[in-house]
């Protein structure tokens, strides 16, 4: 067996750098290099990425790049883009990048030109969304569709919700989308109780078409539809008000959805990477096929950069390596993502699945345990709201929390001076986090010596600034692809499989096994652990069982 990356000289060198780096302050790094800001800024498509306020010097950056070479990041990237089965535990290719290849490209995987298949589905989605948007597609009573409700969970929900919210400024006014994900019945209730079934279209979105939450919600949504449409409504009505997005035609047909109205994708698209596939149908209906194509072009621009740019100026690779530096070598446990755009209010939630389901692993590709820190906790909220909530802990707490600040020079809605004020917060925060305020500065402002220590800000909190001109479909695609490839870079260094999710699968199996105990008419066997047994008993009694 070949040597693990974590046993290599490059890894050991970084451990040495981590010890030496303790105490180096961003004030000194900027003080000794007046051009640091410009020097450590890179461009990827429309995104300007300033990584100068990170806790690195040139030696650490070189050591991280050497680690990437040692981990064969370039080779593994090429293997992913070529459709090799790098998802070894499921023996699958990992080809979300093929979802955004241009129509005239060719990519043969397992004997099939997948690009032709991708565009065949995109064309069908485009034709369908045109019909819904124009009102040509009508429901059972002949009325046009006003509300599209996507039913899905995880990757079949988080991407569509996030992108729908992000691109609201581009959406057709006559269509609203809603998203039902949770099996908590309140989600279904809240999203349907004020809708007219006659003008509602459901998209049942599930890669496997076997997910408990989605199938339960879809079944109840069908009941709601049929009850609302009246006694003459049956299979015909379901065909007009239900379409499916899935890889599993048989299960779609078994559910009662006409497979003519099914939009397929492939097992080589992971759920958390699936927004640019048919999973994005609700978004395409909302914003139109042209804007959806712009989003795919945005993804593609970053894909090409990641595949072809040398590592030293390869933005996703650099940011992924910085994350490894913080997480594995400096001991950071979490990473904040702070978009200064209210439209991106679901971006952190989306990234949580992308990053944490991908890299929340403790076993390496060869089955050996990873004896170091892997996937960090991603979290965040839009600025400036976060400033008045949790930023205090980032500024003056005891934890190392690298943070990404994402902002836009042009607002989607320019009202008075608001956007300039908004962005002054954006720029001020990264400066305050990096440089803080010294005791001398605080005392010079006239603060009493007793209070002064409380007002000192240590600074040295690392941030990366991502600035684009405006939040457009293309820029959104670029941002998503950027984080996809950051995630991949980290997984490659750690030698883990970023494309399976066995931990989540266990939870699904256990919930299905336990469900009958909650509803059984007689007392079920107390054969779980003592905590679960007692909780089930209490639950049953509170439900009157
Ligand atoms: O949460 C686990 C998971 O398997 C995700 O990876 C996936 O996005 C989600 O469930 C939904 O799965 P499906 O699209 O098959 O319903």
TrEMBL record:
GO molecular function, one term: glucose-6-phosphate isomerase activity
GO terms under biological process: gluconeogenesis; glucose 6-phosphate metabolic process; glycolytic process
Lineage of the organism: Bacteria, Bacillati, Actinomycetota, Actinomycetes, Micromonosporales
PANTHER family linked to this entry: GLUCOSE-6-PHOSPHATE ISOMERASE (PTHR11469)
Subcellular localization: Cytoplasm
Chief localisation class: cytoplasm
Official protein name in the record: Glucose-6-phosphate isomerase
Chain coiled-coil ranges: none
